[in-house]
Each structure stands twice: as structure tokens, then as C-alpha cells.
Write a structure and sequence with these properties.
Pfam families (chains A, B): ATP-grasp_5, CoA_binding_2, Succ_CoA_lig
Radius of gyration of chain A: 32 Å
Largest sheet of chain A: 7 strands, mixed
Protein name (chains A, B): CoA-binding domain-containing protein
GO molecular function, one term (chains A, B): ATP binding
CATH class of the largest domain in chain A: Alpha Beta
Oligomer: homodimer
InterPro entries (chains A, B): ATP_grasp_subdomain_1, CoA-bd, NAD(P)-bd_dom_sf, Succ_CoA_lig_flav_dom, Succinyl-CoA_synth-like
Number of helices of chain A: 24
Shape of chain A: flat
Organism (chains A, B): Odoribacter laneus YIT 12061
């Protein structure tokens, strides 16, 4: 568990600290010295008494008591050093930079396991091994550079890959992103991404804590923990973006050669992130852009004003936002005309608001005030301002900073020039501001953030099902596919409507069955193989008289020994499926049937359990949603009932986790509801 | 027309040149002086005799003969100055930076028009007005900074927006992209993007000319010219990428307020670019990334090796390439093992080839040699190499440059560190190399480049149609929807198979008609409104005997005065449409019918005329293509015949441009072919 000794140690020892700053042990010491660390600093180096001006002890045994140890020595020496530190020196925080542990071979794994046992035995915290270290606002505990600007209100970054953490910092720095902490968890021997997130959640202080978290992960070891703490943090007002790489087949192979762990199913990850409210990013630049967006107030609506001194970038941004499902409302009326009058001739205010290459800082101020005050249709403002290099633009960037301080609506600065305005950008970033170099990358990221829904409620309202009956059937079932009666029992217990059917070999039974099922119904001979060819199928049977007549006729047909009756159903084919996903629990899938699954792969997945609301959101995201609503004069499907069925299946698999996979395919849906016509359930009890 | 005086003038005068470099006239002079211009330089400034050390004339009239004039004076003074220069000073090239012309009002448009007339009268070239100017390897004729590195083998950039050209240069410079020329065409009074491209095409010299062209356009004034010269350049070995913005509805409004021109239909643009082989980009960063890719040899296949010293970025790049439809082939066997032996313990070569954070320049060389020589499955190599800041990486980047010089396979350098390796990156760029900061943005761009097909052939093979018959029908037709007989005539003349049908009121006629149509067929009463209710429809009629019997029976039915016979067709509903698009000619559209058009918008569009090959490519890009191939035991559609029908419609509308829009919806397709069941054609003759 993360502790105060790790975050804010009173003393740090670099075991393996050296004068050679081209080595991790030398470089991490250099970074500590260059940084703001105010505690005591020690080195252990068997050869010298002083390293980079810091007192060096020849052996770990010689050290005084010390909170935190950073180890940069060969793997084989680590367990003993940790033992002495933990048991004799009161050390409660360990950062092991060295490689050569479980990522390499079984021998290394044994070393790692011994270290974890030792650290656990004293209730300590362990970061790594095989990582670049830890950065907090108190100390620079990484062996890499650059060190980003550290700020308690900056970003908390947790990364499963050290080099990637470094490159993410670099990408962020180029947009002015500051960092509050960086945890490179390496092999996650004791503390992984999930545990760090748990700590950030449990220690969250609305007054002091950073509100932006970034994650880089290749495999999610503890999905439930990630879901719990990510959604909890977001409910507390945080914003989280994450890269989960290795989602493609080839990427999964690449990730497994990188971390040794098979990548999690990408569909499951997608569902987990959506449930948690995490913005999923695909690359470092996108992650840094989203982090930048997170540093500004959240949008309260999807209407953007675009303020620009150059037409082209504004057109491209308009395209990006509009294609991303946001609005760029046309601004007109008296207030717009008043604004136009205060700008140079040739300006336009219809949105984009183009105040021309000659536009001034003062005019920008007027425009921003108008957007804030006069245009209710505007929820946020993107300001594009570069420079042709004629004169400095400090005044413009200062104006942006000033207006940002008081505006309720977020103002996003896009600086399309770089080479010629480095100084201005630096001054702006030094005020703690983040900026965006490319309008389209910004626009795409903003649309993605906007479309990421809030986390699902902690305790969702779930449909009630007959738990006892479900458990009874499951407990009696063996592995493999369930028999029809078992399936019927489970569906009934879960409250899923299914097509009624039955078989009768006596006329009176047949009539009774027909009454139970209800009209209209279908009658089919039982016995003959080719039922149609022997005239053994009758559709749309509407009354008892026909039932009696057809029963008598059918029983005369060769090979017929009984008659099957089934509800005559009509509607649109939909489907619901569920699949147990390692570590993630069950994924529940839904969509339209037939070609929509098989050819168009138009399926949405959610992580069980799903409330009716969450199920409904999934349905609405289907590409074929219009068909469910009803299109071209066709009836459509009762959306509420479809969503309820999806939610019921998600509750069923929660209660019966022994269900390995199941399909209701098809269900027939119409305005009245959805009815399962065919179902398949496979049980696989875990040992 | 662009001329030598514009590209490489022996003398340039800056009319309106001043000492104030915060003004365009001062800044453009400064840039000329700072650049490599070797010719004579003059200034016209009514107030002084020398400006920035250059001789200044008080009046244009006082100037000696001069090839090229750059005007930075108020719009109203421009026409007279141009008059004197053109008529008296032998000036053949004009770059007008000033604004206040047709982009502002009618008065400005009149000034602009006068200038164009004057320039045309001497056969001169005019760039602008309302632009940032021109850059060539001979002179810096722009008033903006930064000035990118100029190199005859760099990129030719043509932009309809001046500021955007500036920002594109800036984005390119940050990746090491060099420029051969930059044309900011402003109002395109005489020379627009298309004319510059035409010149680059007609003057193309395989020995000397740059092979990479970038375009930024908001409205395409001359699509045919753009198509002609872009495809011609690409056939000559060039590579072209373009941003066409204003594609969304809101973006179109934004573009029109920017340039005054309505944006072209985005579907038409998409079709034009595909036909020409232009890589379409959506933003500056993407355009600069594609330009960077263009600076390396083209990929000959889609198999990429990823070489890295850090796992995470390699996993993300693998995902990006793989999701983009490229391959990252698994490398194994003896050669792979040999390679592995030469790397540090813990490296992997399965692809990604990860040679660890400790990997050396020498090892990189060995890996690149192996990829070039030993792994036939590899078509190109992406090398990811950043730095944790422990030591400089000059040797690694030098190795990259050296191997690039001899490798046949392209090697793309991805540098995920920036802050800490600025010097190394600069040294690499100074060797003329381009690099990529973000692996995912690179991967997405590479996949886009790979999937951009070659231009269509200059003289495509088109299906033969009956031109005379088509013209006869069209010439006789008035505006509006055509009558059934006219439609039948056009379809027959175009060689489109259609459902045969006819009406008979005599038994013998009916039998003859049935023989003509062929069996099976459908018979329907003509007269009664509700045909089914009076038993007036018979399907699947298979022989003459049934025709006779049913004819007699039907003629007895109340209100019946004739019987209609039609081919009994079955198959999958597909559709073909065509629409005249302003300036672009006709778009031809195809897809599956029904919900595929209406709900899923699964439609591909091509610019007429289309060869069967091009039509087939369109069909294969449909999301529902699998249904055309046949799926779930269903028959599918004869792809060759469907493509031929698309091509035939494209030829029809070329011959009959009076067709404003037409729909064949549906056609029924099966393995035998496609047959039009219903068609609508609307004529709108232009005045």
C-alpha cells in the first residue's frame, strides 16, 4: 500500500548511487539534487565515501534510519539490501529501478517474490522493479530526463511502461501540461496501476488533490478495482484519460512480448472504460491533448464558438468538431451586430468569429467577453491565434490568460505557430496554462471528451430476478450446453419472455395447449423430417376449430406421432449474448440479428451488471438504432423492453457466473416487446 | 500562366517596401535580404531614397526594367502601379500581398479585375491579391516568418489560405520537412491552386523537380483541371496530399465566410481525390506527417517491421498499423535467431524487434541490415528511438541516416523524445531527414497513404453504349422526370438490363408477349385497384398453358381490361444513382438497397466516367460488400455485372449531361446479373 514515506519521505537513500550520471544510479541522484527535495539524502556505494557531494555509506548496514530507498543495483543484490533496510533501517518505501526480475526469467521472479514478502512483512510500499521511478512534488525519484514542471494541481500519471511514461511527459510538456505525480510501476510486483489509483481515490482531498489522472496500461490485471476507483474518482470530480494498448491481434502479441502478459480483450476494455467514464486515448499525443483539455473547466454543453485571426484553421476546426458531433451555432442578432461593430472592417462574427490577421488583443478581449456574457448558445470557446512574425503576440496571450481567470465558460487556446512565438508560448505556459498546437487534433480530442459519458452509478438499480430458481438450475447443471428445459427455466427465472410452445399427441391436450399458448399460433407435425413437403406446417391458426381440424389431419400424415404448437410471432430479429471474460466478469452484448451481427458487426458490449438505463445507452449507440426505432414504415422494437431484457441477462450471469457463454438469437422484437425464440447457454464451472 | 520571371526573377521590386519590419512591405524586403536572392532588388517608397539599404524609387515610373513586382500598398493604388510595371517596365510577374479586393466588396472586385486584365494583356503571371506571397529556392517572397529550409527536393506547397500556408510550414518544420516552393494564391484572381498545379505538371522534370506536392483548398474551382494535373503528376512519380476543408455543413458555412465561395460537396471531393490518387488529410499535423512519409521511398507492400528500444510505443504503433489494415508479420526461423543472438539478453525479435533501453547504435545497424536483407516478409521499417537522457544519441541517429542511404526498404524514424534530444534531432534534420514525433499519428498516416490507390488511367476503357439513341432521346426530352418509355429507351441504349414487361388484351398477344419475356413470369390484372383481393395476381407462371388459362380467368374479373406480364425476378436489392454536381460533372453512386442506403448510408461515390475496374473498386469498399459476395447461404450479386452497370450509367451521364439526377432503385442482383426493376431520371438542361 502506498504510504506517506513514498510520497513525502523525510529521507531517501540511493542504493547504487554513483558519480556517473550516464548510469541510472548516478542520474537519479542528480535529479534528486536538482529538484526540490528538502529531506536528508544518502548514498550507498561500496567504493567511495562521497558521491556527487552526498555522503556515501559503504554498506546498507551502515545507514541511519531512512524512510525511502531507491535501488539501482544488480537484481541479485536487491533482496538482501531490501531485507536490511526493511528490518533494520525502518524503511517503508522502496523504488527498485533495476531490471532482471520476473520480466526476464524464473530466477528473477524468485528474487522479486522474496522482495515483495519482505516489504509486505513491514507493511511497506514497493514500486517496480524494472521502472523509471517516481516523481512527486516533493522529490524527483526518476533516473530519466526531462523532468516536467511539477505542480500539485497538475496531472497524476500512472504508467505500466517506464519509457512510455517518459515519452508521455515529453508530449505533455510540449503543450504546457504540468504534473503532480508520476508513478512508473514497472513489473507491478506489489503496487500496480490499480493500487496507485486506489490510493489516489482513498486519499482524495477535494481541496488539495489533483483532479486529472492519466493512465498507460497494456494489460489490466484487476479490472474490478480499476472500475471501482476510476469511477469513484470521477464521481468526486476528477477526470481520467487512459491508453490501453495491445488491443489489436498484432498489438496483443507485441504487448505480451513487452510485459509478458496477454492483453485483455479489447471489447471488455472498451466496456470497462465506458462504464467507468474514462476517456480512452490511442496515442501519446492524443492523451496529452485530452490532459490539456482536462486542465480547463468542463464543457456544460456541446456548442462551441471558434474565435480566430485566420480563416483556414477555423474552417478545419469547424469540420473536426462538427464531424465529431459538436455544434458551432450560428451567431446573429443585435448582440452579434454590436460585436461586429467593434471589430475591423471585413471581420465576421457568424461563428467562426474571424477578427482578421490585423486583430488586436483588445478586440480579442471584447470577443471573449461577448461569448461569456452575450451568447447563451455558446458553451465553450476555442481561440486560434498564431503569428506571421510581424510583431510579438505577448499582449494577445496575456489577454487569453486574463479572460480565462474570470470566465465561467472554458477558453481553449490553439497556437498554430510555434517557431516564431516560442517566447510568448513559454510565458503563457509559465502562467500554468496549457495550449494546443493543432486545431484538428484538439477538435477530435474535445469531441471525444464530450462524448464520454459519466460513470454509471455505484449502486445501479437492477431488475429483480428469481435468484433461488436460477441457483437451483445452475447448481444441478453439469458443464456444457444446457437442455431446453433448463434454458426455459433460467429465462423464466430471469424474467425473459420466450416463445411459448408445446407438444401434444391427444386432441384434447392439443386444444388445452393452444389455449395456454394463445392465438395466433403455428402447428407442425412431429415425426416427419421434411415437414413442409408432407403438408405438415400450418401458420396463423386463429381458433379452436382449426386446431381440432388440423390436429386430426396432421395425425394422419405418415410418421407423425405428435403435433407441436408454438406462438406465431413476428417482428425484427434482435439478439442478446453474454460471455465470461477472464478477470472482467461477463460481457453482455446486444444488437440486431442476422447480417447486422455477421456482416456489419454492429454490436455493443457492456460489463455486467447493467441497469436498464445503461442497456438503453448501449442500444442507442448501435449503428442500426434507427431500425429499432422503426424506419421505412416498419414497426421497430420496443426499446425499453429490449433494454430490460439486456439488463435481465446481465443480472442472470452475475448470479450464475458459471455461465460461460449464452446467446438469445434471435429474439423477435416489436412495439409490444421482445420475445426469445431460440437460446443457447453453455456452462463452464471453474475449478 | 506561371513563368520564369515569377519563379526565378532577375530582379524584384517591392512596391511599398519600408523600414518598418512590422509591416508586410518592410518584412517581405527583410526576408528577401535575409534569403538567397541573387538578382537585383529595388524598392518603391514615395518618402525615402533608401530602405533597409536598398535603393528606393519615389515612383513606379522611375524604376528600371524589372521581372517581378511584389506589391504591399493599399488596394486602390495597385491597378495603376501594375499598369506602369506591365506596360513600361517589362514586369511579367506580380505578387500582390495587399488585401481589400474581391474578398471585401464589389469596389475591390473591380480593382482586382482591372489588374487581371492588365497582367493578361502582357502575358504575365499574377499571384494574389490577399496572400502571404511566394517562396522558391531563389527568393523569399513572403512577408511572414518563419521561413522554412528551402531545398529543390523538398515539398511544393500550394495554399488557398495564406495563414494556413504559414501554419503548415511551421508544422512541417517541426518534423524536418523542407520546402521547394510555397505558393499562397490568395484570391486566385488569375492563378489558383489548379493553375499552379498545372504548371508544376507541365514543367515537371524527372531529374530536377520535387516529387511531393501539398495542397490546402477550401473550394475547388476547377475540379477537372485539378484531377487532370494531380493524376498526371502522380503518374510521373509524384506524391500528393491535400486538405480540402469545409466538408461539414458548419465547415462549409465557415469556409464561405472565409473565402466567399461555397464549399464543394464533400462526397464529390472524396471521389475526385480517390480518382486522382491524392491522399486526403484532415489537418495540418496529418498533412505534415504524410509529407514526411512522402520524403521516404514508397512502401512496396503492407508488411512493417517495428524496431524499438521501448516496448510501449511499439505496442501502440502495432495497434495503429494493424487497425489501419497493415501487417506486422511475425518474424521467426534461423535468421531471426541469428539476429537475436547479436542483441542483449532479454531482447525480442518476433516483431516488434525490441532491442531494449540499453540497445546500441551498432545493434540498430545489425537489425536494419537484417530487415533489409534477411526478412523478405518486411516491406518497410519503423524505428522508435527516444532517450531517457542518460547519454546523447547522436550515434543512433547517425546510424539511421547511414542505413537510409543504402536501404531499398523505407526506414521511418520515430523520435518520441524531444526536450532532451533537441540537438540530435537538429543534426538529423540538417542531413535533410524528416522524423515523426508520435508513433500513433505516424501509424495512422502511413496506413492512410498505403490505402490510397494509384490514379485511374488517363484513358480508361469504358463500356460501349448507343450514343446516337441516347442523344436522340435526350434532345427530344423536356425538363423534369422522363416518361417510362424514355427511361426504357435510355437504359436499353446504355446496355442496362431491365425487367421485361408488357400488357396484352388478347390471348394470342399475351402468349406472344410471354414468349418474349420468358418464363417464369408474373401476371397481373390491369384495371382493378386492389389486384390481390380480386385474385388478380399470379406468380411463378411457368408455361404457355398456364398463361392461356390465367389470361382467360383474369379477363373475367370485374373491371379488368388487360393483363400485364412481367419477368419473375429474385435477388438482392442493389441501387445505382447519379447526380450532377456543380463543376464536378456527375457523381455516380452505388450500394445495396433498402436500409443500407436509408439507415446505414453505405454508399460509394465515383466521378463519371468510371471504368468497370474503378466501379468494382467502389463496390469492394462497401461495408456490405460481403452481402454482394454472398453470405449466410444467400446467393449474392454478380459483382462484374454490377460493376459494369455502374460503369454504363457513368457513361450514360457523360453522354447525356442534361441528366440532373437518376436512380435505379432497386436493381435485383443475383449470380446471373443485375436487372433494373424501377428507375427515375430527371432532366435539367442548362441555359
Amino acid at each position: 500500500m502506498i504510504n506517506e514515506q513514498l510520497l513525502n519521505p523525510s529521507g531517501i537513500v540511493v542504493v547504487g548511487g554513483s558519480d556517473d550520471i550516464q548510469k541510472p544510479g548516478g542520474k537519479v541522484l542528480r535529479n534528486l539534487l536538482d529538484g526540490d527535495f528538502k529531506g536528508r539524502l544518502y548514498v550507498v556505494n561500496p567504493k567511495v565515501d562521497e558521491v556527487q557531494g552526498v555522503k556515501s555509506y559503504r554498506k546498507v548496514d551502515d545507514l541511519p534510519q531512512v524512510d525511502c530507498a531507491i535501488l539501482a543495483i544488480a537484481a541479485k543484490y536487491c533482496p538482501d539490501a531490501v531485507e536490511v533496510l526493511a528490518k533494520q533501517k525502518g524503511t517503508k518505501a522502496f523504488i527498485i529501478l533495476s531490471a532482471g526480475f520476473s520480466e526476464e526469467n524464473a530466477e528473477g521472479a524468485a528474487l522479486e517474490s522474496r522482495i515483495v514478502d519482505t516489504v509486505n512483512s513491514v507493511g511497506g510500499a514497493l514500486i517496480g522493479p524494472n521502472c523509471i521511478g517516481v516523481l512527486t512534488t516533493h522529490y524527483n525519484g526518476v533516473f530519466t530526463t526531462p523532468i516536467p514542471a511539477l505542480d500539485p494541481r497538475g496531472v497524476d500519471l500512472i504508467s505500466g511502461s517506464g519509457a512510455t511514461a517518459l515519452f508521455i511527459m515529453d508530449a505533455g510538456m510540449q503543450k504546457g501540461v504540468k504534473f503532480s505525480s508520476v508513478f512508473s510501476v514497472g513489473n507491478s510486483a506489489q503496487l500496480g496501476v490499480e493500487e496507485v489509483l486506489e490510493y489516489l481515490d482513498e486519499s482524495f482531498d477535494p481541496e488539495k488533490s489533483s483532479r486529472v489522472k492519466l493512465l498507460y496500461v497494456e494489460s489490466i490485471a484487476k479490472p474490478e478495482k480499476l472500475l471501482k476507483h476510476a469511477s469513484s474518482l470521477i464521481r468526486k470530480g476528477c477526470r481520467i484519460a487512459a491508453i490501453k494498448s495491445g488491443g489489436s491481434a498484432a498489438g496483443s502479441r507485441a504487448a505480451s512480448s513487452h510485459t509478458g502478459a496477454l492483453a485483455s480483450s479489447d471489447v471488455a476494455v472498451e466496456a470497462l472504460f465506458r462504464k467507468a467514464g474514462i476517456v480512452r486515448c490511442n496515442g501519446r499525443d492524443e492523451l496529452a491533448t485530452v490532459a490539456g483539455i482536462f486542465m480547463y473547466p468542463p464543457l456544460q454543453g456541446k456548442n462551441m464558438a471558434i474565435v480566430t485571426h485566420a480563416g483556414g484553421p477555423a474552417v478545419m476546426l469547424t469540420d473536426a468538431l462538427s464531424n465529431g458531433g459538436m455544434e458551432i451555432p450560428h451567431l446573429e442578432g443585435e448582440k452579434a451586430l454590436q460585436l461586429l461593430e467593434q471589430l475591423f472592417n471585413g471581420s465576421s462574427v457568424g461563428n467562426p468569429i474571424d477578427f482578421l490577421a490585423t486583430g488586436t488583443a483588445e478586440q480579442l478581449g471584447i470577443i471573449l467577453d461577448a461569448c461569456e456574457r452575450d451568447f447563451d448558445a455558446v458553451d465553450g470557446i476555442a481561440v486560434i491565434f498564431g503569428s506571421p512574425g510581424l510583431f510579438p503576440v505577448f499582449d494577445v496571450y496575456d489577454m487569453l490568460d486574463r479572460k480565462m481567470k474570470t470566465a465561467r465558460k472554458p477558453i481553449f487556446p490553439i497556437f498554430p505557430s510555434y517557431t516564431i512565438v516560442k517566447e510568448e508560448i513559454k510565458a503563457f505556459a509559465d502562467k500554468g496554462r496549457v495550449y494546443f498546437p493543432d486545431e484538428v487534433l484538439f477538435g477530435n480530442a474535445l469531441a471525444k471528451v464530450w462524448h464520454t459519458a459519466a460513470p454509471q452509478p455505484e449502486n445501479p438499480v437492477l431488475p429483480a430476478v428469481n435468484v433461488q430458481k436460477i441457483r437451483a438450475i445452475i447448481d444441478q447443471a453439469g458443464n456444457g450446453y444446457l437442455a431446453p428445459e433448463q434454458i426455459h427455466g433460467l429465462l423464466d427465472a430471469a424474467g425473459i419472455e420466450r416463445a411459448k410452445e408445446g407438444v401434444a399427441d391427444q386432441e384434447e391436450d392439443c386444444v388445452r395447449l393452444a389455449t395456454e399458448i394463445g392465438y395466433p399460433l403455428v402447428m407442425k407435425v412431429v415425426g416427419p423430417v421434411h415437414k413442409s413437403e408432407v403438408n405438415g406446417v400450418v401458420l396463423h391458426v386463429k381458433d379452436e376449430q382449426t386446431v381440432r381440424r388440423e390436429f386430426r389431419r396432421m395425425m394422419q400424415i405418415k410418421d407423425t406421432y405428435a403435433v407441436m404448437l408454438a406462438q406465431q410471432l413476428s417482428g425484427t430479429e434482435v439478439f442478446i449474448g453474454a460471455k465470461r471474460e477472464q478477470k472482467f466478469g461477463h460481457m453482455v452484448l446486444c444488437g440486431l440479428g442476422g447480417i447486422f451481427i455477421e456482416v456489419l458487426k454492429d454490436v455493443k458490449a457492456g460489463l455486467a451488471p447493467l441497469s436498464c438505463t445503461e442497456a438503453r445507452e448501449m442500444i442507442r449507440q448501435l449503428k442500426s438504432y434507427k431500425i429499432i426505432q422503426g424506419v421505412r414504415g416498419q414497426e421497430g422494437v420496443n426499446e425499453a423492453k429490449f433494454a430490460e431484457a439486456v439488463a435481465r441477462i446481465s443480472v442472470l450471469v452475475k448470479i450464475a457466473p458459471e455461465i460461460f457463454e449464452m446467446d438469445l438469437n434471435p429474439l423477435l422484437g416489436n412495439k409490444a416487446g421482445v420475445v426469445a425464440v431460440d437460446a443457447r447457454i453453455r456452462i463452464e464451472k471453474e475449478n
